[in-house]
């Protein structure tokens, strides 16, 4: 009799797990990227597993475990302080770039084919860059991904820019001579004209000196050259380990971060209008519903919302003791008053452009009607478990009832 009860419980439990999936645990420095209605969360510290969130569904972010997550950790890179960008033939692969010393036995680049839902380790041709972390990649052109500087596993950070061709899987180095000083913990955003803007960060990870926020390096992807953008408006305080996204209406939003020199921790939102390069302070109508301070997090735009995910609120830089599993949703549909909300829905949504912190390429338009083979398969699994569960229960009742 106990055997049957255990059977029923285990089948029902499996069925419940198949429905809800396992939610990502708390983490610092994961990467986030949106492809075809799936928000991918890759790696992190201390949890380094990977997931996607099905954003074609409605959910409530106040209960992360109830959100439609799918684990994609099999074969995935196991690391943090990474960056992820879209590439591949049909913009349907995710390239995860970066290695800390603790992860340098892993390849510098991993690929996730979102169509086949499989990971592969990339052995890149060309002369690959030295392993590095605290970088922010940026996709542009036909399958190209740029990385700049970062914290080297070998020390002696340099100001080198590298271009990864995600179609041929090979690297080339920039020949530009006027590259900005070495930096890490910055964010790169691909602008609508396909050039790349670099925001924030600290000059040397080991030296507490932050880059200015009113002179921003711009990499011209067409002629392999650098220039400086001088911004107007009120300049945000310098920071690193913040998040940055590009919205469909051509604004860069940055959120949170830390100033390692003054040990200031931020939960502020700033807006950079990329047609005028004017900064302004973002208005959040209900700041108390957002994080008290946040850094080492990641962000992405999905429909009318900026997802602000994971990270830490610890006042204990550089060894934060609180890592977060929280997801905050900022409704960015109204230009001059943003608001923290808990309920997510992609609808009504006709067109959207998407961005992730670590990338910035406006990518795929969410196609609300598409269903993934993975979720269809998990439905088959779920129904299978339910049927087995009901069968066992019927058997139990027939025998003992
Ligand atoms: C989402 O969660 C919040 C906080 O628990 C709650 O106030 C709100 O009603 C929930 N929304 C839905 C649609 O359940
Ligand atoms: C990639 O390499 C790492 C480290 O050797 C390994 O753990 C992982 O399973 C590999 N992934 C694939 C898809 O082969
Ligand atoms: C991928 O997306 C980029 C930027 O949105 C676009 O310029 C490029 O043409 C796309 N590539 C393919 C192969 O669709
Ligand atoms: C990934 O997480 C596992 C489980 O916590 C841990 O044993 C492993 O060392 C981590 N890998 C890296 C490279 O941090
Ligand atoms: C950063 O570190 C490198 C190598 O250690 C050094 O050459 C460079 O001057 C440093 N830059 C700054 C701005 O401190
Ligand atoms: C830099 O110059 C080399 C040699 O001419 C060339 O092969 C490479 O494509 C150039 N890199 C870029 C980013 O243009
Ligand atoms: C690259 O193009 C930009 C914009 O067209 C121009 O201002 C700049 O001088 C060019 N740089 C080089 C090195 O050709
Ligand atoms: C950009 O400005 C920095 C100072 O913030 C300067 O060192 C650098 O040479 C400038 N770069 C270019 C390409 O003008
Ligand atoms: C961790 O988070 C809690 C709750 O927000 C906060 O009270 C505490 O100060 C944080 N710990 C550190 C070391 O910052
Ligand atoms: C919102 O801001 C963008 C860029 O700043 C502007 O182009 C657009 O017209 C604004 N929309 C509204 C409804 O104010
Ligand atoms: C913030 O809100 C105030 C009051 O609604 C408005 O006057 C101001 O323009 C807003 N600021 C921004 C950056 O939208
Ligand atoms: C059912 O779930 C298991 C474990 O989660 C998975 O390995 C298997 O591929 C799934 N089957 C289908 C048809 O999706």
UniProtKB/TrEMBL annotation:
Keyword annotations from UniProtKB, A to Z: Kelch repeat, Repeat, Signal
Signal peptide location: 1-18
Record carries keyword Protein biosynthesis: no
Region (Disordered): 353-372
InterPro entries recorded: Kelch-typ_b-propeller
Name listed for the protein in its UniProt record: Galactose oxidase
UniProt source species: Gigaspora rosea
């Amino acid at each position: 009799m106990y055997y049957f009860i255990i059977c029923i419980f285990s089948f029902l439990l499996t069925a419940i797990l198949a429905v809800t999936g396992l939610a990502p645990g708390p983490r610092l420095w994961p990467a986030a990227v949106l492809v075809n209605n799936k928000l991918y969360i890759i790696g992190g510290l201390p949890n380094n597993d990977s997931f996607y969130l099905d954003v074609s569904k409605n959910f409530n972010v106040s209960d992360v475990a109830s959100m439609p997550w799918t684990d994609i950790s099999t074969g995935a890179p196991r690391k943090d302080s990474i960056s992820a960008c879209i590439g591949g033939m049909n913009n349907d692969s995710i390239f995860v770039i970066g290695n800390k010393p603790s992860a340098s036995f892993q390849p510098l680049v991993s690929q996730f084919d979102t169509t086949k839902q499989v990971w592969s380790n990339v052995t890149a041709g060309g002369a690959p860059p030295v392993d590095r972390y605290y970088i922010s990649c940026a996709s542009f052109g036909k399958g190209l991904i740029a990385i700049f500087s970062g914290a080297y596993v070998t020390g002696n950070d340099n100001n080198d820019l590298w271009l990864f061709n995600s179609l041929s899987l090979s690297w080339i180095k920039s020949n530009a001579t006027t590259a900005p000083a070495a930096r890490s913990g910055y964010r790169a955003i691909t602008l609508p004209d396909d050039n790349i803007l670099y925001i924030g960060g600290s000059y040397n990870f080991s030296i507490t000196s932050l880059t200015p926020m009113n002179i921003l390096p711009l990499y011209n992807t067409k002629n392999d050259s650098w220039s400086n953008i001088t911004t107007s408006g009120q300049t945000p305080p310098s920071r690193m380990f913040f998040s940055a996204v590009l919205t469909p209406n051509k604004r860069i939003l940055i959120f949170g971060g830390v100033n390692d020199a003054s040990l200031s921790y931020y939960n502020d939102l700033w807006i950079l209008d990329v047609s005028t390069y004017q900064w302004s302070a973002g208005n959040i109508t209900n700041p108390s519903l957002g994080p008290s301070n946040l850094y080492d997090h990641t962000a992405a735009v999905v429909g009318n919302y900026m997802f602000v995910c994971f990270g830490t609120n610890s006042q204990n830089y550089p060894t934060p003791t609180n890592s977060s599993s929280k997801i905050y949703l900022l409704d960015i549909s109204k230009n001059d008053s943003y608001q923290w909300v808990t309920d997510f829905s992609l609808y009504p949504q006709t067109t959207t452009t998407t961005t992730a912190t670590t990338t910035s390429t406006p990518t795929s338009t969410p196609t609300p009607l598409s269903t993934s083979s993975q979720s269809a398969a998990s439905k088959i699994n779920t129904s299978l478990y339910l049927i087995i569960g009901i069968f066992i229960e019927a058997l139990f009742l027939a025998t003992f009832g």
